[in-house]
Each structure stands twice: as C-alpha cells, then as structure tokens.
Amino acid sequence: MLPAQLSIRLRQSSRPLVSAILSRQQLDPRRTGFAIRRYASEKESSNPPNAPKGFDNFFGKDKGKNWQKKAAGGANNANKGSGNSNGPSKPPPIPDPKTNLTTMVPALFGTWLVWRMIAPQENAREMTWQDFRNAFLDKGLVERLEVINRNRVRVHLRPEAQSIQGVSPYVTYYFSIGSIDAFERKLDEAQSELDIPPSERIPVAYKDEVSVASLVLNVAPTLLMIGFLVYMTRRAGSAGGGSQGIFGIGKSKAKMFNQESEVSIKFKDVAGADEAKEEIMEFVKFLKNPVQYERLGAKIPKGAILSGPPGTGKTLLAKATAGEAGVPFFSVSGSEFVEMFVGVGPSRVRDLFATAKKHAPCIIFVDEIDAIGKARGKSGQFGGNDERESTLNQLLVEMDGFDSNEHVVVLAGTNRPDVLDPALMRPGRFDRHIAIDRPDIKGRAQIFLVHLRPIKTKAVLQTLSNKLAALTPGFSGADIHNVCNEAALIAARHQKDEVTDEDFESAIERVIAGLEKKSRVLSPEEKKIVAYHEAGHAIAGWYLEYADPLLKVSIIPRGVAALGYAQYLPKDQYLYSIKQLMDRMCMTLGGRVSEHLFFDTITTGAQDDLAKVTRQAYGQVATYGMNEKVGPISYQDPNSEERLIDAEVRKLVNEAFDRTFKLLTEKKDDIEKVAQLLLTKEVITREDMENLLGKRPFKERTVYDEYVRPSQTITPPPFEEGPIPPRDTP
After folding, report:
1. Closest by alpha carbon to 271, among 436, 487, 508?
2. What is the pTM (predicted TM-score) of this model?
3. Options 3.20.20.140, 3.40.50.720, 3.40.1690.20, 3.40.50.2300; which CATH number does 124-209 get?
4. DSSP letters along 44-64, please?
5. What whole-number distance in Å separates Cα of residue 690 and Cα of residue 664?
6. Burial class (CB in 10 A: 0-12, 13-18, 19+), 245
7. Which CATH class is domain 441-512?
C-alpha cells in the first residue's frame, strides 16, 4: 500500500503523472514525496504550452498560469532566436482520457471473461479417494460433502482444519467419482470402519452446476451455424438486395437515368442506322405528344424488339430514344432477373413495372432479353417450376397488365431473335420488330465521321471516312470504333504527331487478320510454301471474272494460326448466282492447287480454305437448291438425305478443284512471279500485281474506285451534328 500523502496526490493528479509514478515502483516509500516533487519540476520545464487541465489541480491555478506564461515566453524567445516565421510548433494532440476509458474497459472485461472461461481455478485442488480419507475423513475434519454434476465431490472442511499444517483455508479440495452408488457405498463403509454413529455421519448434498466454458463449447456449433446463416444472408442481400439487404433481394436492379444528366444522347449522335431511327421515332413522338394519337383512337405499341448482330448499336439506339423523348430511362440486363433463390426473378419483374408506372411516361430497356425470353419447354428440366420460365411468365403477365394509356414503352435488345418465345413476340407485347443490321458503305462512312472527330489527323475527314468505309466491308459500328482507336494507338506507339492513312490501314489489318507475329519465325522452306500458296489465291482471283478484287497479299504471320493472308474488296452484295459462287470456290482452292503444282506434297495450310469451300458447297446443294440432281429443295435437316447431299457436294468441290487446277497450270509462270515478289517484299499490293501482270482481263469498277473519288461526298444523315457519343457501340 502507498502512503496516504502519495494516494491523495495521485487522486489529484492527471493520468500521465499516475502512469509515470507507478513506473517508479523501485523507489523507497520514504522517497516517494521527493519523486513526486522532482517529477513535477521536470514536467513543468519540459511540457509544451498547452498543458492538460489535470495539471491545474496538481500545481494550483496560479502556478498553472505562471507555468503556461513561462512556457509560451520560452517558445517565443526560441522562435525569435531561430528566425522561424511560422510561429511556435504545435504540440501533439493529447488523447481524451474519457475516450480511452470507454474503449479500454469493455476490452479488459472481455479479456477477463475469456480468461475466466478457459483458465483453471487457482483455489481448487484435486485429490484421490485415498488422499481424502487419510488426510481428512479419518481425522474427522470433514464438515460436509457436495456431489457436483454426479461426477465430482467437493469437500468442505471444519474450521479447526485450518490449524493443521498444509491445509489452506483458501483452497477447495475435490475428487472425482465414477458413479454415485459406488461413492455412497464406499463412504458408508469408511464411516462404519471409523465407528461413526448414523446421526453424526457426514451429510452429502447433490448439485448441478454449469460451467461457462462447457456451456460455450456446447452451444458453439449452434452459434457457428447461426453466424454462417447471418453471413450468407448479408452476402446475398448485398449481392441481390442492395442497401436493403436480404429483404431487398426481390427488388428490381434496373438503373434509372434521367434526361437532365445521364441520357444526353440524341438521334443525331447515332450514325449508320437511319431506317431503324425512322421506325423507332414513332415511340418518341407518342411519348412527347400522346394526345395527338389518342384523340384519333390510336394506341401506341407496347414494346419493340431491337435485333441485330453484336456491335450494331442496339443499346445506343435505345438510349437515344430516351434522350429524344426526354423521359426517364430504366436499363436492366436480362440476366439480372435470374438468381439462385426461387421467386426472385418474378418479384424483380413486378417491382420493375411497378416503379415504371410511378415514373410514367418512361422507357424500359431490357438488354439481352434472350437470357429470360427463350422459348419455353425446350431447355428447362423442371417444367413450369423452372426459375427462368417463371420469370418469363411474369414478364408476359406484366406486359399484358398495363394499358397503352399508361405511357410505358418496353424496348428489348437481342442478337438471337430466333430463340425467343412466340408469346413474347406476338402483337400486344413486343409489337414492333426492328432489325439493326451491319451498316452499308454509306452507313460506315457516317460512323467513321463520328469516330474520327476526336482523332488528330490532317486528312480531310469526309475523304478519309469514304476511303475507310470502302476498305472495311462487313464491319459493324463497334469494329469501326476499334479501327479508329487502333490507328491512334499505332501512331502513338511510333511517336507520331498525327494519325496518317498508313496507321488506319495497319489498324484495319490488325482488326481483320490479327496482330503481326514477329516472334513466329518460319523456316525458308515453310516461307516458300506460304508464298506459293498465297500466290495461287492471288492469281486465281486475278483471272476469275466474279472473284472479289484483290487489295493486298502478305506472307507475314498474323493472329493465332494465319501464316499469310490475302485481302479483298467485296461489294455489299446480297444475291449470288451459281457462276459467282463457283468463281469464289475456285479462288479459295487456289492455294491448295498451287501447292500441288510446285511441291511434291501438300501441307496442312489449306485447312481453313477447305472448310470454307465445304460450307459453300453444302449451302448450294442443301440450302439454296442449286443442284440439278437434288433439285430445288432446301433441307432444314441435311441428315435426312445425307448420302445424296454428300455425294453432290463432293462432286461440286471436285469440279471446282479441276477448274482451278486447269487455270493455274496455264498461269504457272504468273504464280512464279508473284511468289518470288512475295518472298522479296513479304507484302504486295494491287499496284504491284498490275505492274507484274497488267490489268485484269475484265472490265471492272471496284467499290473503292466507285466510292473513293475526290468529288464524291456523303450525304449526311437528316439530323444535325452534335456532341461525340460515348465510346460504346454506335
């Protein structure tokens, strides 16, 4: 115990002083007062000016003020002497004792509780039955016994037992037993041997006590299971229910965009889809002025399906519809309706339509609706109980449930309209089916104009867009954006100040054929085979009237497996005759035939060519009805006439091979010239072919010649130019 003077001053001092003095426990108690006075003088001279309030009580109010003045004066003098204009340095923040106490007390209590549960009792000592009898029972020191939980006996001694050496009054003795019957029998026998009369025999009590540690161990599995369920519930709630947790898992995950901030895209920002814009404009006009239609008894279609290949601008067109109409726009993916919990999909559909009705007029856009709209009864294994089918059924009910006067329009996008359920496509639900195909050459030029605006180039954008549109047949809007971006990356990689035509051409090759594989080094023999293979393609196409005009031939490896490639300029053509298809097949077989003519064996390099020819032949025989023996029949299942179709396909391919073999045998010298030039330059163009072979023996006018002319201009779309749309699909 500390002296009274020390305890009084400790109560008056602050917490830092207490900890400092307690750390000096090695001092003699007689010198404790000296230690306090010395410590106070040290703190007075070394502490910063802003002293805690606890020191006022220790030193007195006057001394505290004097101490603060002296400290402030010393700091000012030091600043003057050092020339520091920033003023005295601020002391570090002093933690609040109340905050520390609030956090430390629960932590200490929890630590003590855990220790009490797992630590053995220090005042308990276990002994055997023999020790119990020899030390206590035979000497008559036992006052009573308690049987705890039927397996342990606690010994209570008489007060006079404390006088015996080795017996502590603070220790509880106990011993274990096998059974109560055996314990009682042994106790009776021992007391009978000691001639203890029945009236004076030791009383025995029976108790059941519960240990905290054993209780925790018993309920631990249950607590772990409850904790696991709570964790999974919160996780499922955060994944599906958002801020509302598990109770919000059935809420719709649709994102709402308003016209003031997010939906700023207009129809003028969408290029290459003029027909689709005209067809969807009716939704915009109705949402803007519904009275004009309703006064004549007209009803707006409830929904429209936007279908087309990937990257053609279905999502962008839906956003532009919302931007033009100036109404809220709810965007959701079809896969977000389906979850692992049963009934979540239909609940989200109901919540989506209920929210849309509150914000009417508005537009709902369901992207990739084929995730929930596939035809029922084909893929589900559980019939009507399948979650996807239940979601689809709820969607059908909701689209039937709201009237056209509620001014809610549902748009949906998919690139697989053939797999959708017929009930979803019928009039009254998705009334309009708007097809958005890949743009033609004029549409590509318009899209290039949009994506060329942020590109730094000195070329005239109108002329450059015309040229690039002619060089990219079959490209979608996403492909065009990729070409412009790749061109800028290539120019930046070569540290150019602007993007040139060569960069755009390299970008087109990169998108079509893949990245150049400079690390793939061909042996001289392999390089020679590739050169003659590509020369066979070039010569066959050069002397076939209906083959696509050649643009470039290369023997530089590209992509995953392409060792060489030939680039052509096909027209935007939708109908092909038998002669045109035959010339295309012969041009495709030119590489294999060239290997036959110049080498003793053939290689695996023509695998892709043979696959293309086989598909074309099966299309003519089994699909387009262009075979005399099979007749004008289009087989939906070619396996029904497998033998006949296979025989005619083989006959057609052999005919094309013989025709190509005859042509290239006559032009063998030309193949040699082109192959040697390829081995020298690795890449040859149309101009190189004309210098070697002269003009093609046919009167032709390519798309490039027709479209890319200095006087040729593109008629802009019937919408004024606006800001650059986001970098997604146009």
Report:
1. 436
2. 0.61
3. 3.40.1690.20
4. HHHS-SS--THHHHHH-HHHH
5. 18
6. middle
7. mainly alpha
User: Would you state the structure tokens that stand for residue 729, as one six-digit string?
Assistant: 């699909």
Identify the DSSP state of 562.
Answer: B
The DSSP H or E segment spanning 685 is: strand 683-685
Residue 534 a catalytic site member: yes
How is 467-501 classified by DSSP, letter by letter?
Answer: HHHHH-TT--HHHHHHHHHHHHHHHHHTT-SS--H
- Model confidence over 589-599: pLDDT tens digits? 999 999 999 99
- What is the per-residue pLDDT for 313? 86
Among the options 387, 509, 534, 648, which is catalytic?
534
- Across the strands, what pairs with 225? none
- Computed over its alpha carbons, how large is the radius of gyration of the chain? 46
Tell me the angle at which helices 4-12 and 32-46 cross, rounded to the nearest 10 degrees: 20
Which of the residues in the chain have pLDDT under 50? Answer: 1-89, 240-244, 246-247, 380-385, 710-730
Q: What pLDDT is recorded for position 717? A: 44
Alpha helices by DSSP H, listed for 361-416, are: 370-373, 387-401
Domain residue limits, the chain: 4-82, 124-209, 213-246, 251-435, 441-512, 524-699
Cβ-count burial 377-408 (b if 16+ within 10 Å, e if not): eeebeeeeebbbbbbbbbbbebbeebebeebb
